[in-house]
């Protein structure tokens, strides 16, 4: 894969309070691994936000390349494992206990065209057009407009990680200083319990 540029994922700022706004859209924040998906020459690579290529997820990458009919593309999304109600499960993903899927929420590049200057709603509309039906291992992450408080309340009721707020007409900016995306986390999210201790246990003695 030598033709596609290596892009940097758009960062998210943190905010405690949800909000409503007519110029913003709101998405569920899934609990998984952020990844850019690069498709070219019938192959797919998944690259982390720190620009490390995921060596695993071979079945997902193969499915991705077979079912997304494009010459080349770069998608932004989240690698997740889902339960039967569509809620993300972090530990089955971390320990590779379940087949993951890819929840795509943005389209940065398509068939040689850089889409990042386009408004977010236009990019999401193009993304939805190219995704296969039925979705299976590749899922379009939908959104609601204006009603951030309502989505956040529902997310907390269903024990989700939180929501992400984005200006509807925003371009895609990789520079962290220019980011306009906001993550609003559920402070009572059950899957966060014990996670810092778990990650600390993975570190070598010299790194503690």
Word description of this protein:
With 208 residues, the protein is of the alpha+beta class. It has helices spanning 58-67, 90-94, 120-130, 148-157, 195-202, and strands at 12-14, 24-29, 33-40, 43-48, 72-80, 101-110, 113-114, 138-140, 144-145, 162-167, 181-185. A hairpin with a 2-residue loop joins β3 (33-40) and β4.
Topology:
Elements: E1 12-14, E2 24-29, E3 33-40, E4 43-48, H1 58-67, E5 72-80, H2 90-94, E6 101-110, E7 113-114, H3 120-130, E8 138-140, E9 144-145, H4 148-157, E10 162-167, E11 181-185, H5 195-202
Parallel strand pairs: 1-11, 6-8
Antiparallel strand pairs: 2-9, 2-10, 3-4, 3-5, 5-6, 6-7, 10-11
If you compute it from the alpha carbons, what radius of gyration comes out, rounded to the nearest whole angstrom?
17 Å
Strand content: 25-35%
Q: What count of helical segments does DSSP give? A: 5
Gap between N and C termini, in Å?
37 Å
- Tell me the overall shape: globular
Major sheet, described briefly? 6 strands, mixed
């Amino acid at each position: 894969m030598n033709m596609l540029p290596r892009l940097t994922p758009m960062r998210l700022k943190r905010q405690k309070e949800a909000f409503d706004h007519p110029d913003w859209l709101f998405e569920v924040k899934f609990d998984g691994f952020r990844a850019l998906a690069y498709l070219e020459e019938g192959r797919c690579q998944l690259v982390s936000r720190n620009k490390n290529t995921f060596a695993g997820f071979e079945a997902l990458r193969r499915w991705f390349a077979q079912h997304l009919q494009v010459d080349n593309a770069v998608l932004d999304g989240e690698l997740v494992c889902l339960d039967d109600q569509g809620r993300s499960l972090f530990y089955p993903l971390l320990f590779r206990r379940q087949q993951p899927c890819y929840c795509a929420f943005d389209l940065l590049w398509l068939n040689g065209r850089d889409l990042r200057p386009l408004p977010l709603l236009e990019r999401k509309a193009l993304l939805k057009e190219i995704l296969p039906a039925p979705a299976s291992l590749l899922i379009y992450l939908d959104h609601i407009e204006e009603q951030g408080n309502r989505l956040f309340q529902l997310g907390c009721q269903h024990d989700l990680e939180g929501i992400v707020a984005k200006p509807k007409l925003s371009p895609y900016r990789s520079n962290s200083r220019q980011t306009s995306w906001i993550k609003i986390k559920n402070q009572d999210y059950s899957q966060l319990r014990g996670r810092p201790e778990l990650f600390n246990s993975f570190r070598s003695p010299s790194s503690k």
